[in-house]
Amino acid sequence: MDITGKSAIVTGSAGGIGRATAVMLASRGAAMVALVDVNEAGLAETARLVEAAGAKASVHRLDLSDIPAVEAWFQAHSDVDILHNNAGVVSGLPQFPDVDSARVRWIIDVNITSLVTATQIAVQAMKARGGGVIVNTVSTVALGTGFYDAMYATTKAAVMMFTRCCASLKGERNVRVAGMLPGLVDTPILDTTGAGGKSEWMKTVLANNEACLPEDIAGGVIALIEDDSLAGGDWVAVRRSNGQVEYQWGHADTV
């Protein structure tokens, strides 16, 4: 898809990957970017950066754990060409199985239920306007055998499977659904893994792995959006090694 003149929604856009993607969409010629998050101050700064990059920005505070609110918002706003389902949360402390059931439900609703809801509504709107592209932020943990944060890993594996199951929508609705799998990324979400900062397990992960920049991931999102030769359900994993960004491409029928 040629991004020039297109409209987009980016969830989780108050900072990190979402902010970087929103700004990059603007720099690639997007006409309008709708910014969705719960962090109003972060949204305001992202809007400033998006408009400085040349696109019109609209700011929307939306709690993605409130599924009726998510459904209502997307019914009203999903007439766009591009949707980046980027928002996500980690468990924090305590971890499973000591976490309470309300926290488990919150993680599931933010990371997967709201994403499915948004995609379902956006696909209908995109079909009516002739097609579109949806990129779901997954995680490289979905390619592994496990992860310390069990609920985060479980929900991201679900997003991966959902993305792959949407492969047929390219042919059926002219809506191409793709997956972005970030490796370790230096964003504010890392500071929510512990009590008031990074957890000890996250500090260990950071000490033993090279972190990507949000812009590294945003570049991969843009590549997924722009390349219409890709099949539905295709995905790309992005990692850093020895200062270089590395890409691992995959398809709906591969893990």
Please report the total strand number as a whole number: 8
Instruction: Estimate percent helicity.
Output: 40-55%
**Number of discrete domains:** 1
- Structural class by secondary-structure content: alpha/beta
Which spans have pLDDT < 50 for at least 5 consecutive residues? none
Q: What topology does this entry show?
A:
Layout: E1 7-11, H1 16-27, E2 32-37, H2 40-52, E3 56-61, H3 67-77, E4 82-85, H4 101-129, E5 132-137, H5 150-165, H6 169-173, E6 175-182, H7 200-208, H8 214-226, E7 235-241, E8 244-250
Parallel strand pairs: 1-2, 1-4, 2-3, 4-5, 5-6, 6-7
Antiparallel strand pairs: 7-8
Quickly list its features.
eight-stranded mixed beta sheet, single chain, alpha/beta, Rossmann fold, 255 residues
Write structural notes for this entry.
With 255 residues, the protein is an alpha/beta fold. The chain has one domain (7-250): Rossmann fold. The protein contains 8 helices and 8 strands; from the N terminus they run βαβαβαβαβααβααββ. It has helices at residues 16-27, 40-52, 67-77, 101-129, 150-165, 169-173, 200-208, 214-226; strands spanning 7-11, 32-37, 56-61, 82-85, 132-137, 175-182, 235-241, 244-250. Strands 3-2-1-4-5-6-7-8 form an 8-stranded mixed β-sheet, sandwiched between helices. β4, α4 (101-129) and β5 (132-137) form a beta-alpha-beta unit. α1 runs parallel beside α2. 47% of the residues are buried. The mean pLDDT is 93. This is Short-chain dehydrogenase. GO terms for molecular function: oxidoreductase activity, acting on the CH-OH group of donors, NAD or NADP as acceptor. Keywords: Oxidoreductase. InterPro entries: NAD(P)-bd_dom_sf, SDR_fam.
